Amino acid sequence: MKALIIYxxxxxxxxxxxxxxxxxxxxxxxxxxVGEAPPxxxxxxxxLIVGSxxxxxxxxxxxxxxxxxxxxxSLNNIRVAAFDTRLSGKLxxxxxxxxxxxxxxxxxxxxxxxxxxxxxxxxxxKGPLVEGELARAARWAKGIA
Length: 145
Known about the structure:
This protein is of the alpha/beta class. The protein has helices at residues 13-23, 39-43, 61-69, 90-94, 98-108, 133-144, and strands at residues 2-7, 28-33, 47-53, 79-86, 112-113, 118-121. The chain has a single domain (2-138), classed as Rossmann fold (3-Layer(aba) Sandwich).
């Protein structure tokens, strides 16, 4: 299986999660920061995973730009999944999270969602990750593969 993980990371936590997810998948796995994967790579993968920190209930502008730039329905027959990093708390949940918006965009482009969108928790805006989140990310990835 060929898997491509595309992520954006502001303070490093989302990058750590992306790498943990890659470690949970067997086969040929590439993990790249948004902007480093040529658009042709999207069509040459069996599994596409996209992740972003949650900022104001949304993915980062770079991830949103990636999603907006994917032609309809170029993700047909490609399995997709989405994740984010987020704070916990009632007020944060009011605005929603990036992973749901990413998943909706991937499905709209023809992708087949293989796992519900997942969020991984950070202790503060700049991190660090909550203890155990890297191991949870690897387990989540095994459920996808």
